[in-house]
Specification:
alpha/beta; globular; Rossmann fold; 3 domains; six-stranded parallel β-sheet; RNA helicase activity; 629 residues; P-loop_NTPase; eight-stranded mixed β-sheet
C-alpha cells in the first residue's frame, strides 16, 4: 500500500469562518462513497478488534445515519461527502487531529474536492496530519500536489509551525503471491470468455472460490444464465458451483450471501461489478477473472446528458482487482486481455470523476464552504470549463446563485443545508409555498435510494403487474406516494413487500431518510403539511425543481420520441416508468440513462405553463417563450 503523509502549511482561501486553534481529541478515518454500505461493518470490526463498544470509542457516520458519541469517539469512519458537510459547520476540522483518506485512487468528485480543501486547511492548521492511502495510487503526483514550494514559503515569510514535506511510505501487505495470466488473442465476447474461464478453473484447479469482474447487472445475469445452462448440459464440469451475483441494486439479503462460508466440497463463484474492487474483501477468493471493463459515467456538458458506458479499466484498477485474489493462499488472476494491451495501451490511471461528471452538486458544496473563486480552486484534476459553466447556469436558474455567483439568501443557503442533489432540494423548498411538503418529502426520500422495486431475471411480468396496482396517471412520483402509503398501511410488512415486488430494505431506508428530511425541513422553517389529494400542486413542486429537465412529445411520433426543451435532444421514457407507452405530451424527468437510446427515468406529466411560472428567466434566456399544449 502506498501512502502519502502531509504536514505542510496552506492558506485559508475561503475557509476562515472558524478559529484555527483546536483541542485535538479525535482520529478520523475516511472511506470513499463506494464503501457507503460497508462503513458500519468496517467500524464494527475495528471496535471488536479493540474490545470497545461500537458507537463509543469507535463509530461511523454515513448519510442519514450517525453512530458516534461526541464525548468518547476517537476513531470515526465516514464518507468523503459526509466530511464535506461537516466542513460547513467546522471549516478547519478542529475536532480532528488526523484525517486518513483511503482508496484515494478512486478519485470521486467528493474525494478531489476534499483533497483540495485539506490542502487549504493545512495552511491554517500545520498541526493537522493527513494520510492519503491506496494500494494503487500514483504516490509521486499526490505528493507533488501537497508540496509547498520554498519560494512561496519565503514570500509568505512564515515560521508558524513545523515544516514537513509530504513523505511517501510503502507498507507491505500480508497477501500471498498472485500469478497473472493473459489471453494470447483479444476476446470478442468477454462475458462468454469469463464463463469459459470459470469452467476451466473449476475443471483444472484445486478448490478455492472465484471472483469474476463484469460491468453490470445485465452482464452478470447473462453469465449466470450461461453457467446454469452449462450445468444442465454438462453436470460433470459445473457441479459444485454456487453462483452468486453482486451489484449495488441487489437486495441486501442476497448481497450478504457472498460473505457466507463456502460449504465443504463446493466452490463459490461471485460475479460482480467493480463494487468488489475496493469496497469489500471476500476472504475465500483464490481465483480472479478480470474482463478488463467497467461501467463509468461520462457527462457531456454541451448536451447536458450523463451516459453510463462500458469502458476499459486502467492499470491501477487491474492491479486492484488482481489483489482481491491471494488473501488466504497463493492465487491466480486471469485477465481477458493481452499482455501487450496491458503494457502498451491500457491507461495508467482512470479519468477522475471530476472530469467526466455533472458538477452541479460540486459547485454548491464549494460555494457553501465560502469558496467563491471556483475556477481558481486548487484541484487535483481540473474540471472542464464547459462543465463548470453549465453547473453555474443551472444553479443560477434554480435561484441558488445570484448575479455575482454567490449563494442567494435564504434559498441558496437552505439548499446547501439539505444533503441531496440541488434539484431535489429546490423541489422541497417549493413544496413549502405550494402546501405539499409531506408528499414531496416522501418523493425526495424515494429518489434518494437506488430503486424501491425488486428486479430480477424472469420476474418482469410479475413486476409490471405489481406496478399497475400502484400506478398513477400523473407519473412515477405520484406512484411512489401510493407505494409508500401501502407500505405504511401494511405495518411496514416485509411480506407485503415481497408480494408486491417492493424492495423491503429500500423502503425501510426511505422511512429513515424521510424522517431525517422532515427534521431538516423543520429546522429550515418549512411547514410540513399535506395537500391531501391535490396532485397538481405536487406536480408543480416537482416541476419547480426539475424544470431544466422538461421534454415535449414529438408530433406524429409513433415511437414515443420526446425532445428536450433545452437542447432539443431525442429522449424516450424508460420501460420501467408507469408512463411507458402512455406518452403524455409534456413531462419532466429526474435522470437520464443511456443504452441504445437516451431514456428518462422517474417521469411525471406536467402542464407547460408551469415551466414559465417556475423559471421564466431560464426559458426566456433560452428563447423558449412559447409553449403549445
Amino acid at each position: 500500500m502506498e501512502t502519502v503523509g502531509s504536514g505542510g502549511r496552506l492558506d485559508s482561501g475561503g475557509l476562515d469562518r472558524s478559529r484555527s486553534s483546536s483541542k485535538l481529541v479525535a482520529l478520523l478515518v475516511f472511506f470513499p462513497p463506494a464503501c457507503f454500505r460497508f462503513s458500519p461493518q468496517l467500524s464494527a470490526r475495528v471496535a471488536e478488534e479493540m474490545g470497545v463498544t461500537l458507537g463509543e470509542e469507535v463509530g461511523y457516520t454515513i448519510r442519514f445515519e450517525d453512530l458516534t458519541n461526541s464525548g468518547t469517539t476517537m476513531i470515526k469512519f465516514l464518507t468523503d461527502g459526509v466530511l464535506l458537510r461537516e466542513m460547513m459547520d467546522d471549516p478547519l476540522l478542529t475536532k480532528y487531529s488526523v484525517v486518513m483518506v483511503d482508496e484515494a485512487h478512486e478519485r470521486s468528485i467528493s474525494t478531489d474536492i476534499l483533497l483540495g480543501l485539506l490542502k487549504k486547511i493545512q495552511r491554517r492548521r500545520p498541526d493537522l496530519r493527513l494520510i492519503i492511502s491506496s494500494a494503487t495510487i500514483e504516490a509521486k503526483s499526490m505528493s507533488a500536489f501537497f508540496q509547498t514550494s520554498k519560494r512561496r514559503r519565503a514570500l509568505e515569510g512564515e515560521e508558524l509551525g513545523p515544516r514537513m514535506d509530504p513523505a511517501i511510505l510503502s507498507v507491505e501487505g500480508r497477501g500471498f503471491h498472485v500469478q497473472i495470466h493473459f489471453v494470447e488473442e483479444p476476446v470478442q465476447d468477454y462475458v462468454q470468455a469469463a464463463v469459459s474461464t470459470v469452467l476451466l478453473i473449476h475443471d483444472q484447479e484445486p478448490m478455492g472460490d472465484i471472483l469474476v469482474f463484469l460491468t453490470g447487472q445485465d452482464d452478470i445475469d447473462a453469465a449466470i444464465h450461461l453457467l446454469n445452462e452449462e450445468a444442465q448440459t454438462n453436470r460433470k464440469h459445473s457441479s459444485g458451483l454456487i453462483l452468486l451475483p453482486l451489484y449495488s441494486g441487489l437486495p441486501r439479503a442476497e448481497q450478504e450471501l457472498v460473505f457466507s462460508p463456502t460449504p465443504r466440497g463446493k466452490r463459490k463463484v461471485v460475479i460482480s461489478t467493480n463494487i468488489a474492487e475496493t469496497s469489500l474483501t471476500l476472504e475465500g477468493i483464490v481465483y480472479l477473472v478480470d474482463s478488463g471493463f467497467s461501467k463509468q459515467k461520462f457527462y457531456n456538458p454541451i448536451s447536458d446528458i450523463e451516459n453510463l458506458v462500458v469502458a476499459p479499466i486502467s492499470k491501477a484498477s487491474a492491479r486492484q482487482r488482481a489483489g482481491r485474489a491471494g488473501r488466504v493462499r497463493p492465487g491466480k488472476c486471469y485477465r481477458l486481455y493481452t499482455e501487450e494491451y496491458f503494457s502498451k495501451e491500457m491507461s495508467a490511471e482512470g479519468i477522475p470523476e471530476m472530469q467526466r461528471s455533472n458538477l452541479v452538486s460540486c459547485v454548491i458544496q464549494l460555494k457553501a464552504l465560502g469558496i467563491d473563486n471556483i475556477l481558481g480552486f486548487d484541484w487535483p484534476a481540473s474540471p472542464s470549463p464547459e462543465a463548470m459553466i453549465r453547473a453555474l447556469e443551472i444553479l443560477y436558474s434554480l435561484g441558488i446563485l445570484d448575479d455575482d455567483a454567490k449563494l442567494t439568501s435564504p434559498a441558496g443557503f437552505q439548499v446547501a443545508e439539505i444533503p441531496l442533489e440541488p434539484m431535489i432540494s429546490k423541489m422541497i423548498l417549493s413544496s413549502n409555498e405550494l402546501g405539499c411538503s409531506e408528499e414531496i418529502l416522501t418523493i425526495a426520500a424515494v429518489l434518494s435510494v437506488q430503486s424501491i422495486w425488486v428486479y430480477g431475471r424472469g420476474v418482469h411480468r410479475e413486476l409490471d403487474e405489481a406496478k399497475l396496482r400502484f400506478a398513477a396517471a400523473e407519473g412515477d412520483h405520484v406512484t411512489f406516494l401510493n407505494v409508500y402509503k401501502g407500505f405504511l398501511q401494511s405495518g411496514k410488512s416485509s411480506q407485503w413487500c415481497h408480494k408486491n415486488h417492493v424492495n423491503y430494505h429500500a423502503m425501510k431506508k426511505v422511512v429513515e431518510i424521510r424522517e431525517q428530511l422532515r427534521r431538516i425541513a423543520q429546522r429550515l422553517g418549512i411547514v410540513v403539511k399535506s395537500c391531501e389529494r391535490d396532485m397538481q400542486v405536487v406536480r408543480k413542486a416537482v416541476t419547480a425543481g426539475f424544470f431544466a429537465n422538461a421534454c415535449r412529445l414529438e408530433a406524429f411520433s409513433h415511437s414515443g420520441m420526446y425532445k428536450t426543451v433545452r437542447g432539443s435532444h431525442e429522449v424516450y421514457i424508460h420501460p420501467s416508468s408507469v408512463l411507458f407507452r402512455v406518452n403524455p405530451k409534456w413531462v419532466v424527468y429526474h435522470s437520464l440513462v443511456s443504452t441504445d437510446r437516451q431514456y428518462m427515468r422517474n417521469v411525471i406529466s406536467i402542464d407547460p405553463s408551469w415551466l414559465i411560472e417556475a423559471a421564466p428567466h431560464f426559458y426566456q434566456h433560452h428563447g423558449q417563450n412559447s409553449f403549445g399544449k
